[in-house]
Amino acid sequence: xxxxxxxxxxxxxxxxxxxxxxxxxxxxxxxxxxxxxxxxxxxxxxxxxxxxxxxxxxxxxxxxxxxxxxxxxxxxxxxxxxxxxxxxxxxxxxxxxxxxxxxxxxxxxxxxxxxxxxxxxxxxxxxxxxxxxxxxxxxxxxxxxxxxxxxxxxxxxxxxxxxxxxxxxxxxxxxxxxxxxxxxxxxxxxxxxxxxxxxxxxxxxxxxxxxxxxxxxxxxxxxxxxxxxxxxxxxxxxxxxxxxxxxxxxxxxxxxxxxxxxxx
Length: 264
What we know:
- It is a single chain.
- The protein is α/β, with parallel strands linked by helices.
- The chain is built from ten helices and eight strands.
């Protein structure tokens, strides 16, 4: 049986990360090199950009298309491809495992990888030599439901499946700017609260982050980009090591913090 794999939370930030690696790209590349020392049967990505009404869905095709689900960016972004090969048999295995946990999960043979999935993967595993499947977040989902969802995924870590949850530590697009000397005032108080809460593996506080975290509404006007972090945290045990990869602030309002839960 493969060793228990870590679970990763990645802030994918702006689609421009694909061509502007900044601090994030090298950190993810180094992380990917360390992760490849493990026996990884497949990668399962949960992206903030795939929400499915009423039930979870999981990609089940042999070849996953690269979805350019954004507009108004330079042409070079739309030329990028991540040649991931799918994992239909492992998708069925994941479906069965999650159904045993009481989740409603359907196979999806049409869906590819959105930018929340393929952009981090191009840095983590640039050779695209590990099979990939993507799992949607069933919608509607609040913080409490995200934690329950994450807890149901725990057993996959013992099956050689590397779980990557891709979202954003902060995600207020109204505050995006281009002066690297400016940082939105709410970012530090918010991410410091998150860091403290993660360190104490406080799922109860996380479930109530809208009420408890300072400036939660400014940091996340909507929930979907924060929920992958809650899923990743809930998928870990409270005695596992936690590693933070801090890649700074981009575009004034995007905190590029990443977390690894478990040994790697």
